[in-house]
Amino acid sequence: MVFASLIFLTVFLPLHLVLYYAVDNKTYRNILLTLFSLAFYAWGEPVWIILLIISAMVDYGNGRWIEHFRGTAHAKWGLISSLLVNLGLLATFKYNVFLYENFNALFGTAFEPTKYALPIGISFYSFQTISYTVDVYRGQVKAQKSFLRFLMFVSLFHQLVAGPIVRYSDIEDNINNRKETAYDISQGILRFCIGLFKKVFIANVAGGLAVLYLGEPGNPLDLSTITVAEAWFGIFMFALQIYYDFSGYSDMAIGLGRMFGFHYYENFNYPYIAKSTADFWRRWHMSLGSFFKDYIYIPLGGNRKGKLRGYLNLFVVWFLTGLWHGASWNFVFWGLYFGVLILLERLILNKIFKRLPAIFSHAYLLIAVMFSWVLFYFEDSSQLFQFFEIMVGASENAFWNFKLGLVLKEHAYWLALAVLLCLPIYPPFGKWFENKLRFQSGLLYWWSLGIIQLILLLASMALLVGDSFNPFIYYRF
After folding, report:
1. How sure is the predictor about 442, in pLDDT bands with cuts at 50, 70 and 90?
2. Contacts of residue 76, Cβ cutoff 8 Å, sequence gap at least 6
3. Catalytic residue list
4. How far is CA 12 from CA 18, 43, 125, 248, 255, in A?
């Protein structure tokens, strides 16, 4: 089940909200939230509930073990157990085929891996439970004594599909002492509707257009048929799709959490307005970046042990960042590509861009990111290099054709809105709107807010109904 589906919007979420607020009892609400989270998780593959519960049981026990033996050598065994189990689960269910293929290629063997369907959310809840045991070991949080509350934390369906990565330390107080208010519920609904609109109105349309010029994963396109301009337009559509997909889901997750009394940190902060790669990653998937910084880069020594060691640590982080996104070498190269750019910025580029108008650094960032999405999209190396050749004009492909002009004309207003919403225009407008209406009339504020929510929700549902009869729409998540 996904948030942008009619079954979730018309049955699952309304039923959950009604039952959740029917009784004002924390234990009842925790149990209900856990049951609905497990039901959400089990919608596609019920068997993987067992995996999630086992992961929760193991790290609940590890946390209690570390707390009990705090200050002794025995505490380390709880941390080691957490790392072995969670990384073992990832290696088994996400990376086993990748590991076997590379082992066979390296040693000339022919081992056949057991192939598993990828359990939904395993990359997220594995990182969340690892961060929990590490934080308990460091003494930054106390071990959760209630298994029900810990299972609720691990299984929370709000952020299970596409993040953000929620650390236990971030919501410890919400787990134990949350207070749901009418204002939080209203703001949560609004945030959810904004994310849903981004997903179905922009991401889905951009995904459909991207497929025209990039092909579908597993069904490659004959790239000799596209022009240079179509190649750039196609990767630009993918850039819009992945941003609005990912940020839209994060908005929906943050909104859902707030409906139930949880306050999650932001995960995206208008990354396409960045002026450097480092700035881009301070704005893109912020929860992942902070995780690798706090649990990999700093423990390795960061840049405190000399420049060469700092550079090595940088590339370790970006290797793992790429690998986290997918079990394929193109994702690894995608991560290392950003590592190289960040290193070049530290050594050379930042000094140059300081002397130039900001538009140059911004243009550099956008072009660099467009090339990065090519690495991210194409798993087949021959297609990858062929697409790069087309983009830089090193192929025999034509530059332009009439068909692209028609596509641009038909989507001109949609494209303008998609680009405009990449800019930070909503926060100041939303704050002004809220302050203005509240100052004039509290009743007017609630009515206006409700109308906006209803319009966004109905528009998104109408698009979803249309999409359900349209096989052309490509859903990445």
Report:
1. low
2. 137
3. 325
4. 10, 11, 22, 19, 15
